[in-house]
Design brief:
By secondary structure, the chain is mostly helical. Helix 1 runs antiparallel to helix 2. It contains 2 helices and no strands. It has one domain. This is DOCKER domain-containing protein. It comes from Cirrhinus mrigala.
Length: 50
């Protein structure tokens, strides 16, 4: 078994997390029947202060 370890600085971690959120939001928006409740929850979770 091969493992690859990469050390990320805080900015890189934040960029990675935001990229994941953007992908999730794009997937929600691109469906033919947009679930507005799911979209609202995802958006609120993305912009709330943590």
């Amino acid at each position: 078994m091969y493992q690859h370890h990469v050390d990320l600085n805080p900015i890189e971690v934040a960029i990675d997390e935001m990229s994941k959120k953007v992908l999730e939001i794009r997937q929600l928006c691109s469906s033919s029947d947009v679930d507005m409740i799911q979209l609202q929850l995802k958006l609120q979770g993305s912009i709330s202060v943590q």
